[in-house]
């Protein structure tokens, strides 16, 4: 009821040749598909509901769709001789399709008579900022994500290597406790010192710098050995 009262008030204050420009979210795409609820929206409409709301008071209307694509894009929905074409491609594959871009907001230019509607409305309008701030921010976040992914992969390799060293040292300790001769203990102590040295090297700044290259070399050696065999 409040929406009807609002439209009636718009009609009351407009002159006979006045124009109403109204934006309204397209409920199916805005809320249902995205499973999103805007707490400031009391009642959202689809196109059919918005047409019913406007028709009695504003029977003349030009309809546009709007959404954001690193810029605000507005395109004519009902123009048969549009001078621009909107193409959309799904998931980076297949042929781009015309007029398949889903509407997130309806933008309606409405009047009490068709004679009052502007005669030369654009079929496509894109608004963005000159510095492309949103795109530049996206690139910055993308680079950060790539660096973090590389760091996570390197830390996982370090963790696997450290776990392997700890397992080897535990095995050496177990062998030492089971052997009683001094010659065997001396060999085990040498192995323990070697493993401790490897672990200390991993934790040193030089080890941190060389570790990725060392892992790559070991991996390549394994691959070539498997190819020769």
Provide key terms for this protein.
229 residues; alpha+beta; two-stranded antiparallel sheet; 5-stranded antiparallel sheet; 7 strands
What integer value in Å does the Rg equal? 34 Å
The topology string of helices and strands comes to HEHHEEEEEEHHH
The largest sheet, given as strand count, sense and whether it forms a barrel, is:
5 strands, antiparallel
Mean pLDDT: 77
Number of strands: 7
Proportion of β residues? 15-25%
Task: Write a compact overview of the structure shown.
The protein is 52% helix and 16% strand. It has 229 residues and is α+β, with helices and mostly antiparallel strands. Strand 4 (87-88) and strand 5 form a beta hairpin.
Could you explain how this protein is built, in words?
The structure is a single chain. The protein folds into two domains: 2-128, no CATH class; 138-228. It has helices spanning 2-13, 27-33, 47-55, 133-178, 182-203, 205-228, and strands at residues 19-25, 60-68, 72-76, 87-88, 97-98, 105-111, 124-127. With 229 residues, it is of the alpha+beta class. Helix 4 (133-178) packs antiparallel against helix 5. The protein contains six helices and seven strands, in the order H-E-H-H-E-E-E-E-E-E-H-H-H. It has a five-stranded antiparallel β-sheet with strand order 1-6-2-3-7. A two-stranded antiparallel ribbon has the order 4-5. The radius of gyration is 34 Å and the shape is rod-shaped. The mean pLDDT is 77.
List the helices and strands and how they pair.
Blueprint lengths: L1 H12 L5 E7 L1 H7 L13 H9 L4 E9 L3 E5 L10 E2 L8 E2 L6 E7 L12 E4 L5 H46 L3 H22 L1 H24 L1
Antiparallel strand pairs: 1-6, 2-3, 2-6, 3-7, 4-5
